């Protein structure tokens, strides 16, 4: 959608994004077949189907936000906020909007995945913490010693992207709980330079961290849904 609005060609899925979406659609097909066979009286399969479709949509929206942030970043040439003309300020504001939308969505998707994993594998994480996060779910996997193969894969992915996730988490927390993340950058610089011009934050580094977050989510979704598909296949559910 955003590509069309920006005058670009529609996205052609490839790489990790394509694999994640295809793996989730395999799960959706399994769930639909089971509902057709058994009518799903408890609605458990229907619930997982709806949640999985929601994850597909959320992943699509995250990728679009990342793409749009990169698109508008190309128009920001000035090294200092005070040197931007009106047009460049508008392009920078659009970059900021989609960049912030992106890093907020990173943790939103992870928490949605945590909800799916908690339900799919009967982890009962809410008994440990009423309002739990994806990372609480990972700790619950480890505590229960259930589905260790999946747990080790997800924890390994999280650790591989620890640095970028920490950066994104700090900016998400600043945005939601304290002040706009980009204003916090400006405030820090004002303390450093007082009367000098405020240098623009490292936009390319921020975008690289967001891309790392996107990749981490794709890999986590692939690992989780491939594991579920393989587990169900062993139980005789057609994948």
UniProtKB/TrEMBL annotation:
Pfam families, sorted: HEPN_Cthe2314
InterPro entries named in the record: HEPN_Cthe2314
Name under which the protein is recorded: Cthe_2314 family HEPN domain-containing protein
Positions of the Cthe-2314-like HEPN domain: 51-229
Organism: Paenibacillus dokdonensis
């Amino acid at each position: 959608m955003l590509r069309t609005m920006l005058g670009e060609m529609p996205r052609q899925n490839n790489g990790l994004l394509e694999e994640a979406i295809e793996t989730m659609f395999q799960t959706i097909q399994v769930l639909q077949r089971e509902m057709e066979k058994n009518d799903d009286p408890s609605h458990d399969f229907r619930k997982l189907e709806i949640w999985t479709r929601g994850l597909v949509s959320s992943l699509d929206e995250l990728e679009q936000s990342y793409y749009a942030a990169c698109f508008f970043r190309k128009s920001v040439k000035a090294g200092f906020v005070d040197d931007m003309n009106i047009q460049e300020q508008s392009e920078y504001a659009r970059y900021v909007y989609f960049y912030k939308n992106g890093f907020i969505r990173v943790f939103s998707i992870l928490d949605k995945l945590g909800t799916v994993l908690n339900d799919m594998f009967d982890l009962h994480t809410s008994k440990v913490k009423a309002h739990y996060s994806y990372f609480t779910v990972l700790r619950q996997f480890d505590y229960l010693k259930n589905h260790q193969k999946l747990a080790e894969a997800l924890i390994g992915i999280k650790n591989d992207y620890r640095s970028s996730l920490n950066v994104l988490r700090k900016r998400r927390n600043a945005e939601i709980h304290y002040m706009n993340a980009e204003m916090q950058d400006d405030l820090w610089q004002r303390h450093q330079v007082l009367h000098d011009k405020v240098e623009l934050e490292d936009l390319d580094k921020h975008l690289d961290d967001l891309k790392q977050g996107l990749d981490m989510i794709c890999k986590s979704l692939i690992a989780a849904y491939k594991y579920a598909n393989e587990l169900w296949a062993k139980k005789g559910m057609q994948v």
